[in-house]
Amino acid sequence: MRRALILSGLALAACGAATPGEQGDRPLTGKARALDGDTVSIDFRLSGADAFDSRQLCRIDSGCYPCGKLAQDATARMLRSGEATIRMVGASSYGRPVAIVTVNGSDLGEQLIAQGWAVPATRYLGDYRARAARYMEAYEEARTGRRGVHAGAWIDPEKWRRGERLACERR
Fold this sequence. Notes:
alpha+beta, CATH 2.40.50.90, two-stranded antiparallel ribbon, disordered N terminus
């Protein structure tokens, strides 16, 4: 019997399975939805990066454009480009759990900020000072390089969620 338990433990370890009480046992709580019969999705927010809402518009010289949809598309492209690692951190935001996401080792929030499709929300990073500094540096580079929304006028995503709009959105 003891030999069977040892062999079972070795087999589980070789397969990478988590044993009770390990990190894999930590529950993830959030609003879930079914993608199909055996696939469930839970929405969560990126820690420290506030991307433009999918319905949000921004303005350049030629008029308003769907910057929020472009932010969503950029996120989707990055997620499709490789394997994502999701590390849950902090409390919920807007009713969703908060996470740091990396794709092939690259911080998704930092990349969205660097491309001009998100702004830093460093007040939510708390003890992650190095990450906050990287996010601010990425923001300054996007701003000076006029990347993404920095090529024109935009409303901060947090203010936009509270109802503030560009003139072209109020028509």
